[in-house]
Design goal:
Elements: H1 2-28, E1 41-44, E2 50-53, E3 60-62, H2 66-73, E4 81-84, H3 89-92, H4 94-103, H5 128-134, E5 138-142, H6 143-148, H7 153-158, E6 162-166, H8 173-186, H9 190-212, E7 222-227, E8 237-239, H10 244-251, E9 255-256, E10 265-267, H11 270-276, E11 280-285, E12 300-301, H12 305-316, H13 325-328, E13 332-336, H14 346-356, H15 366-377, E14 385-386, E15 388-390
Parallel strand pairs: 3-4, 3-5, 5-6, 7-9, 7-11, 11-13
Antiparallel strand pairs: 1-2, 8-10, 12-14, 13-15
Helix pairs in contact: 8-9, 9-14, 14-15
């Protein structure tokens, strides 16, 4: 019994010493807890550069992809944006500018309290001095901006600004996925990012699976695609197989007649188009406010279907095209150029797939899917306009 009491006493003393040690260490110790060296996040951007951040970023300059930023981050994430490329936005995407600035007044250039502009929406020229003065944690760029501003990157990094390169221009699942994953990490919205990636990849996988199952004679329809900003009197840009519309057509196993261009984009010769005799013609539209051509292709936010049809009829009536298969068979379409380079553009993959393989994708409704995607992830934005249409 005496031995048992002795062991019990020793145990009690041990417990009391342990408790005293914790109390003294927590309240009376002169030693300070050492800061953790743990990196908050680490990833490789779309230029193959390893990015390490020691904390969750709270201040962003968004050089490109403001739509993707908002789709992942939600409306509240705009409070973290201290700079955007606002110069000339209304001149090349007027309808988009109107609706986005209605939904998010802080994006309206020149207004009191607006987010400062750090350069041109469409010209890749960024104001380094302005960016540094805004003291962002992160500067988001596209690949072209990174190339055009390469000499400024070290300056940004030395100022404590992490430059992160994304890429939605190549129109590949891989780049869309990686870019959206990065936005999810940066904005602490990884679940939302993964939800969008799941929707995108599942939708495009369905297109690939069905097209692969088709016989060879159903594929490789000749497609001519151009941007209609110059109106009917002059060809706008077409794209090779590695960027934007050209990449989509190629991915869906269409024969993009501009696919082998050495440059990423350029207008085609009239003779080349007529000689190719495309089966399908697709005209990309927007509202280019500074363009004086009154017959340019109109598509996108705020554009009525009747106006889109009127402009599309003008393109279909180009004299040089009257004997083309696409014209004779009524295979002439309009698409919104501004809706590319976002996570909602899987619906444009769907639409072009329907154009090329109407029976195979009769059950898919790209326009409804676009509406639903915006309603889910950016309900503040009014979805109004014409984003895809066939010549009536």
């Amino acid at each position: 019994m005496m031995q048992l009491k002795k062991w019990f006493s020793l145990i009690c003393v041990g417990i009391m010493l342990a408790v005293a040690s914790v109390f003294i260490g927590g309240c009376g110790s002169s030693e300070k807890t050492q800061p953790s060296d743990k990196v908050a996040m680490s990833f490789t951007d779309l230029e193959g550069r390893k990015i390490d951040l020691t904390k969750q970023p709270q201040r962003f300059v968004v050089g490109d992809y403001i739509t993707n930023y908002l789709l992942v981050g939600g409306a509240a994430s705009l409070d973290k944006v201290v700079g955007v490329t606002g110069d000339g936005w209304q001149d090349v995407r007027y309808g988009e500018y109107v609706e986005f600035t209605k939904a998010f007044p802080k994006l309206k250039s020149g207004d009191a309290g607006a987010i400062p502009s750090i350069g041109g929406y469409h010209d890749n020229v960024l104001d380094a001095e302005k960016i540094i003065s805004l003291k962002p944690d992160v500067l988001i760029m596209d690949k072209t901006q990174y190339t055009e501003n390469n000499q400024k990157i070290d300056t940004f990094e030395k100022a404590g600004i992490k430059v992160v390169v994304l890429d939605y221009h190549a129109e590949t699942i891989d780049n869309h996925t990686k870019s959206t994953e990065i936005l999810g990490k940066l904005l602490d919205r990884e679940k939302v990012a993964q939800d969008q990636i799941g929707t995108y990849t599942q939708a495009v996988d369905v297109l690939h699976q069905r097209i692969e199952a088709l016989s060879a004679d159903k594929k490789n329809k000749k497609v001519f695609m151009e941007i209609g900003n110059k109106g009917t009197g002059e060809y706008g840009n077409s794209y090779n197989n590695h960027i934007l519309w050209g990449a989509i057509i190629h991915d869906l196993q269409g024969d993009n007649i501009s696919g082998n261009m050495k440059t990423k984009y350029a207008p085609l010769d009239r003779e080349m188009v007529t000689a190719a005799n495309p089966d399908i013609i697709i005209i990309g539209g927007s509202i280019w406010a500074k363009d004086t051509k009154n017959d340019q292709m109109r598509m996108g936010f705020t554009v009525d279907e009747s106006l889109a049809q009127e402009r599309l009829r003008g393109f279909a009536a180009i004299p040089d095209w009257k004997n083309l298969n696409a014209i004779k068979n009524g295979e002439v379409y309009g698409v919104d150029h501004g809706s590319l380079r976002t996570m909602v553009d899987y619906t444009l993959f769907q639409y072009i797939a329907k154009i090329m393989y109407p029976e195979t994708f009769a059950d898919i409704n790209p326009q409804q899917n676009m509406h639903d995607f915006y309603a889910k992830y950016l309900p503040e934005l009014k979805y109004h306009g014409t984003f895809m249409t066939k010549l009536q």
